[in-house]
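Before the break, one more example. Copy the sequence into your notebook; we will annotate it together after we see the structure.
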Amino acid sequence: MAIAQEKIAEIYTEYGGSATNTGSIEGQVAVLTERINHISEHLKSNFKDHSSRLSLIKMVGRRKKFLKYIAKKDITNYRSLIKKLNIRK
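Here is what the structure looks like once it is written out:
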């Protein structure tokens, strides 16, 4: 269920500035969103996979904390990121 390294590098390039800038908070939120979407699709067909469900809940919580930090730091960046990633808020 892992995402390919090429896809992760592409996400960091788009949101973090470069593929090697893995510490950017926007890039981390984008990668977490990709992983959350991937696991959500997995759980639609494998609804008894409780370990994946627990991982999903942890990732959603981590993304929520990151988004809270971005909102506190720069609200316009937060709003553009939410719109770009198509996250409900």
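The mean pLDDT is 94. The chain has four helices and no strands. Try to locate both features in your own notes.
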